[in-house]
Amino acid sequence: MVKINDKIKKVLDGILERFKSGDIPEAVACAMFPMADDIPSGKWSVLNRILMFLAGTADARGYKQWRKANRHVKKGSKGFHILVPRMIKTGDEKTGEEQETLVGFMVRPVFRYEDTDGEPLAYEQVELPELPLLERAREWGLKVRAIPGNYRCYGYYSPKRKEIALATPAEKTFFHELSHAAHDKIQKGLKKGQDPIQEIVAELAAQALCHLVGKQSDDTVGNSYRYIEGYAEKAKLTPHGACLKVMTQTERVLKLILNKGGKPLAPIAQVPAAAGAGLTAVGGVV
To answer: Would you say the pTM of this structure is higher than 0.85?
Structure first.
C-alpha cells in the first residue's frame, strides 16, 4: 500500500477543501485545456494540473526548470507542491533485466510563472492587439489575457474567473469567446465544456462580428462552416438546421454585444485580418 506522508496528506487535504468551496469543477475544466507539449506542465497528471490552476497560474515549474528557461524565481516567492511518483529500479530474477517499480509518492515544490523574472518565453510572443470590442469585455469586468496553448485549442471563456484566455491574436477567436460571455449573461449561466448548441451560437455570432469589423468572407467562413458542421453532427442536426435552431439566441447575443444601454456602439473601424484569423479550434466554457 502506498504510504501517505504528512506533506502529501496536506496537498490532498487542500484539494478536499477546495471541493467544499466549489472551486474544483472549474479547476478540472482548466486542467483539461490542451497545452503545448514543450511546457513541462503539459505532461503533468490532471491532478497536478488542478493544483497548478488552483494556485492561479497556467505555467509552473521547478527551480531548475525555470533556470533552464533562463528565468529565475523572485526572492521571497513561495512555491506550491505537486505529487510525483517515487520509482525504484529492481532486477527481474528471471530475465536479469532492470525494471522500475512504483513504491509511493513524494511532493516536489514548483513555482508559478508569475513569481519569476527573466527571458521571455515562446508563448509570451503572442501579443494581443487592441482587439475590436475589447471595451465590451472590460465593461463586463472581464480580463482578456494571453496564455500558452497548442494547435488544437486557441481560447476559452471562464465565467467564474471572469476572463477570456487567448492563445492567438485572431479577432475571430476573441469574438467567439466574447459571444460565450454574452450568451452567459443572457442565459444566466452556461453548460461547462463544449456544448454543441453553445458553440454554434458563439461561432455564428463571431462570424457576424467578423463582417462588422471589415473582414473578407473568405478569411473565416469556410473554417466556421466546418466548425458548425462538426457540432451540428454531435447535436444530430444538419448545419442549416442547427443554425436555424440557434438563430434567436445568436441575435440576442449580437444585440447585447453591439448595444450599450439600448444605444449601438460607435461604428467599428475596419481592421486587417490578424495572423491566424481563420483558426477555428477555439475552446469552450470552463
So the answer is: no
